[in-house]
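Our preliminary data section would be incomplete without showing what the modeling component actually yields. Below, a chain of 125 amino acids is followed by its predicted structure, encoded as tokens that our downstream tools consume directly.
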Amino acid sequence: MFFKIGGTVGAIAILLSGTAAIAQNTERYVTVGHDKGGNSVALDTKTIHGTTYKLYGLYGDGIFETTFSALCTESRLFLNRIAIYGTEGQLLEDDNEKGEIPFVASSSPGKAMRIVCQKIGARGW
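Predicted structure:
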């Protein structure tokens, strides 16, 4: 798969498409699941702030970026933002509708939440 995306968006797209990635990016992005097409969904470990984190995945020719917040002590998960970027890295869609979503431990957001909650030392994780 070929991408004309530059910078971070390009690195994410290359990593998610399963092609060779730069070593520093393989430590930054942790695969937490796969979409229906078999493409990786990755947690960006550099953007974790407290219990807020971002997941990336392929979307058409570009990528999506989804921002979540976790309430570790109550196993609650909140969707904060969904952004879709095109092949040139341009923002195509930006949805800031916030709300609670079901916590499903086996889902990509659930697996990422586990990593985040363990990182901060939350009890029960």
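The beta strands are 29-34, 40-44, 52-59, 62-71, 76-85, 91-95, 99-101. The chain has one domain: 7-119. Preliminary results of this kind motivate Aim 1 of the renewal.
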